[in-house]
Every structure is written in C-alpha cells, then in structure tokens.
Protein: Thioredoxin domain-containing protein
Amino acid sequence: MKVIAKLYSAALIAALFSTPGIEVSAQVLQKNVPAIPGEAKLAKLKSAVEANPDDMDSIQAYYDAFLEVRPGQEKELAAQIKAWSVQFPSSYYFPAYLKRAAKLAARTTDPEILEGLKKAVEAAPDSLSVHQAYIEAVSPDNPEIFARYDELMKEFPQSAMVSYALAKAYLDKESPKAKPYLLKAVATNPQFAPAWYGLWIDDLRWGNFEEGCEYIRKAIAADPTNPLYQYRYATSFMGLDQEKFTDLSFKIARDFPESEYADRALGYLASCSGNAEIRTKCYQMLHDNFPMERAEPYMTSYFDVLLAENPEKARELAIEMKSKNSDGWGDLLTQAEYFIRGRKLMDQSQPAEALTVLNKVKLSQYSAYGNESLLRLMAEATDKTGDHQAAYAMLMKVFVKEPSPALSRDLYAYGLKSGKDQAAVKADIYTRLNAQAKAATPFTLKKYIGEGSASLADYKGKVLLLTYWFPGCGPCRAEMPFFENVVKQYKSKPLAYVGINIVAEQNDYVIPFHNSSGFSFTPLEEVKGRDKGNLDNKGAAPANFLIDQNGRIIFSDFLIHAENEGHLKMMVDLLLEAPAEFTKQKS
Structure:
C-alpha cells in the first residue's frame, strides 16, 4: 500500500503548498537527533535519507547536521542534495532543499566576486535576479547589506526594485525586516505589484488581515492579469468568510482556465470546504475541464470522496486513471471493487460474507472519508450478524481516538442494541479515555503578553487546547479561525487556548499578530532544547494537543478545518462534560 500512500501524499502536498501565505519553514520540521559524534551522526542521517527519501524529517535533520558538522562546506551540501534529486527523482522534497542549499553555497567573502556582483547590480538595478545573486553572496544577515542598499536607493531613487530586492530576501526568510523596504518600494512606484503582494504576505504574519486585504487588492489593481494575486486574495478568506472564499475560487477557475492557479483554486477549495456538494463539484470540474497532468494530483482525493459517497463512481475513476497508466491506480481499483462487493453483499443480507470482503480493503491513512465510511460499513455488517457488542467495540476503539458526530450516532445506536443505555455508553467512553490518558510533561514558558511565565500547572481545572505554531506558518494561521470558532462557544467555561511559538526569529511578529488577528490564544515562547516529553511536536507546526482538567493528554495529532470543526467541539465537550470521577482521575 506504499504506492497508495504516496499518491495521497502528492495530493496533500499539492493542497498544502497552494494555500494562502503558506511558507512552510523546513527549519521547523526537525527530529531530535541523538547526541553522537558529528561525522558518525551525519553518516547515520545520510543512510536514513537514502532508506526513505520521502521522509522530510530525515532530510531536514541531515541538512541541519551537515551545516553543524561541516561549516563552510555548503557547496558540498548542495552537491549531495543535487545527487539525491537525481537518484530519487520521485521525491517531492529534494528540489526545495537544493534551492536552499544553493543559496548558502552562493555566499562568499571573495572581494573580487563581491565587487563583480556589486557592479552587476549598478549596471542593472531593475533586475531582481542580479540583486538576488548579490544579496545571497553577501548574506541578508550581514549588517553591511543595509548600508549598501541605503546607498543604492539613493543612487537609483526611481527604481522600486532596489528596495524590493532586499525586502524579498527578508520575506523569504519570514523576517519582520521586510516591511520597511516593501513600503519604500510602493512609495517609489505605486504600480509595483510585487511589493503590494509582499506587503500582504508580511501582514499575514503581523495578523493585519484587513490591511493585508487592502494590499493584495492594490496588487490586483496594479496587475489585474496576474492570477497569483487573484488566487491569494481568494484564499485569504478561508476560515474567515467561507462564502466569499468559495465564490472567488470558482471565479479564478472561470477567469484563468489556462493558469495553474485555476486548478489550485479548485483543489484548495475542495480540501478546505465543509460543504460536500462544493467539494464534489470542485473535483468534478478538475476532472472534466483540465488536462490530466494538471488534474491528476487531485484525483486521489476525489477517489476518496467518491468511495464514501458513490463507490461505483470511484471505481469508474480508478479504471479511467489506470487506463492512462497513472501509478498506483490498480491498487485503488482493487480497493473500490472490494468496497462495492461488500456493500452489495450487505444489500443481499449476507453480512458475514460482506465482512470477509471488507476486511480486504486497505486504504491509505490519508483516505479520511473512505476510512470512516469503511469503518461504519464494517460495524453495520458486524451488527447485522447479530454481534452488536463487537460492532459497538469496533466503533468505540476509533471514537475515543478521533471522535466525530457520525461515529457518535452509530456508537449510541449499537450500544442500545447491546443493552446499554446512554449513561452506560458514556461511562464506557470515559473508561476508555481514562485508560489512554497520559500525564502531560510539565512546562514553564515565558509569556509574550504580561509579566512572568505560564506553566502547565496554571491550567489545572481547565481543559487546555495547546498548539505549536509560528507567525510564518500558513497551515497554523489557516487552522486558527476554526479553533476560534470553537473556543468562543465556551466563554463562560473552563477552557484555555495556548499557542507556543517555535521560531524565535519571528518573536517580533507574535504580539502584533495576537493583538491584530483577533484570535484569543495565549502566546508563549518556546525554549530551545527543552525536554518536551510527550508534548513533543517533533519540530513541526501546527501540532495540537487537548489536555484535560487534570493535566492529562487525552487527544493529540489532530488538525482542524472546515469539514471537521465539529470534531474539535465534540472533543472539548467530552472533557468539559466529563463526570466528576473522570476529572479526579490521575494517570
């Protein structure tokens, strides 16, 4: 099933990197590396990458370790990553890492090279690529760069590109240093669309969403034929105004059908919509209206939706994709056929035979809709064999890990058939939750707002929604409106919402983001190298935990969006409405 997982990974990555302002910093996707000697550690990590070239964590760990163990040998790092990109052409990550390594390799202290690049900038001040070569050679972190660009801005006062080039270097680093230079660029030339667009990206990190919308509207006005700006404007409303997000996304597909942003808009809308009809419409439009090479990354997600809603149509899609020699679709076709056969046997009142077939279905972990549909169908088949208790237990096992309204309805129904009333089912749920609860590793972290620090113990008696984030993290920002939708329903309840910023270089963004965004979380500052224990985010963001009133982790490894916002509410309700004996439990 590795091929299927890889197909779903492709769709996930396509959606992830097309989201509004998502600049996923590889620096925050790290694993803790054992404390072993440098070269030995590097060799071990190199082997890990080559054993699994699709593991982004391993690649990042190698990248970081190389810079630590072999400083000054960045060209060698770039050469190694380039070799991997040739050796493993199907890996999605090496090109991005090669670009990063190449920037580091471009840095130099050779005065002759620097003088040549400096003269190239003076000869072509409106060339972004020339500026980028010079800035990368000097390094945007070198204090000398500020003085040099102050001189260039005076030397070329009519060129918006001079200030924008430096701003772009800081934008790419997700640095607060970008904004002054972006403002200088638009002051020099109000029709300079890239700078308006950069101001929008930067404002997302400051939490200035309304001002940011004004900026991107100015980018659109300055360059109305650029579909990127239209696309980013549409996605800026995701989670904040879903109707507008939907309307604008469809408009992009209509207005820019030849652009890659047409299919990106539909794919992202499908992945972020809580409306099943809209989701299906998006995937069908991708299937019907776009060349297969553009539609294919989204078809596995469409297959997943169809498998839950219309398995016969999912089978037709798999046959079509297989006929086009798309990798992995033979396996997906097999899964669809098992699914259809199982449902047919159910319709023929042969639940035992249906179970035998359904047990052969092996879906990817990314098949969210298909997996829940399969689980419910298997529970139904089990129930119809007369084993109500087994159907109940099957759903209970999953419900206490990932509760959902659909599973809840079935769970209580099978519980009733098993002789359990509502109170007995609830008691079983809390017995299971208590069994899986783990005392959260204590923390004490500095507050960004107010004096002092906050500790896990400070939240005793409250349910705690804990998220790891950073201001430049698009997926974090995309998730926050849905967190806020849930949290605001409990204003008078003991529920706390805390966000730990994991990128210290973005500290200057944190307080403005909190105050301007309207999100009610309490921001705390991470301490590098601290022992996080079982609250370890493994360097990633977002990473979420739900902790009960007694400081125990009950739910983790969940992501919230429009489709499953209700799941978070159900998790919170389970903890807030827990019986006294549960809240008094200690693990």
Remarks:
- Confidence is low (pLDDT under 50) at residues 1-35.
- Residues 390-436 form one domain.
